């Protein structure tokens, strides 16, 4: 919508109502986030638009049941419980810690809960994927946006993966499909894409 200069908003009446009713504002904001964005970016969006409250998930019971509870297990197993980008794996006894099943094409965009639309990622790389700081190329390589910068572990944990191949899943059928990686590049990735690395 941004590309086509389409603007959306609330009518003055609704805007005034939201302004004077913080509880309603929070409900409406959380509903919009849940319908359109993955959980990992909710707090970032609230902070960026200047809404001063915590992103507490309020999924309705019908919405919860629509999600496939086995997706996480499917994806983590497909990548042998490691981050597909950095190979990270930490367990507390048998429970993996800070390892997540990421959707490449967001669940909120009507994507399927299948292996070829998922990646096992550590919490850091999941967040970077969902924020569009990195993308997956058609050659299954990691692309880091030229817009990201930082210090500390930035070189080791982010920049060094630029152009590196993703970890291969157990079965080649589970590799990310280009229909999903292309959606992510088009809708989420915050960098230039097209130069093959
Ligand atoms: Zn990682």
What would your notes on this structure say?
The chain is of the alpha+beta class and 197 residues long. It folds into 2 domains: 51 residues, no CATH class; 120 residues, no CATH class. The protein is 35% helix and 10% strand. The chain contains 8 helices and 6 strands. It has a two-stranded antiparallel sheet with strand order 1-2. Strands 3-4 form a two-stranded antiparallel sheet. The chain has a two-stranded antiparallel ribbon with strand order 5-6. Helix 1 packs across helix 2. It is globular. The two termini are 30 Å apart. The site of zinc ion has 8 residues, from strand 4 and helix 6.
What fraction of residues sit in β-strands?
5-15%
Reading the helices and strands in chain order gives HHHHHEEEEHEEHH
Straight-line distance between termini: 30 Å
Number of helices: 8
Number of domains: 2
Mean pLDDT: 90
Q: Looking across the biggest beta sheet, what order are the strands in?
A: 1-2
Shape: globular
Structural class computed from helices and strand pairing: alpha+beta
Helical residue percent? Answer: 25-40%
Q: Rg from C-alpha positions?
A: 18 Å
Report the uncertain regions: none
Bound molecules: zinc ion
Q: Total strand count, please?
A: 6
Main sheet specs? 2 strands, antiparallel
């Amino acid at each position: 919508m941004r590309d086509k200069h389409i603007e959306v908003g609330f009518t003055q009446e609704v805007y005034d109502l939201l302004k004077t009713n913080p509880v309603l504002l929070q409900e409406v904001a959380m509903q919009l986030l849940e319908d359109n964005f993955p959980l990992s970016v909710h707090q970032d969006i609230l902070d960026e638009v200047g809404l001063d409250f915590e992103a507490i998930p309020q999924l309705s019971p019908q919405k919860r049941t629509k999600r496939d509870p086995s997706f996480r297990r499917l994806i983590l197993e497909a990548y042998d419980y490691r981050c597909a980008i950095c190979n990270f794996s930490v367990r507390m006894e048998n429970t993996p810690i800070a390892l997540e099943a990421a959707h490449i094409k967001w669940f909120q965009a009507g994507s399927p809960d299948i292996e070829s639309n998922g990646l096992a990622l550590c919490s850091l790389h999941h967040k970077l994927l969902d924020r569009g700081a990195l993308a997956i190329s058609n050659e299954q390589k990691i692309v880091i946006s030229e817009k990201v910068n930082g210090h500390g572990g930035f070189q080791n944990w982010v920049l060094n993966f630029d152009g590196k191949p993703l970890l291969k899943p157990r079965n080649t059928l589970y590799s990310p499909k280009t229909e999903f990686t292309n959606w992510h590049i088009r809708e989420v990735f915050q960098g230039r894409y097209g130069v093959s690395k």
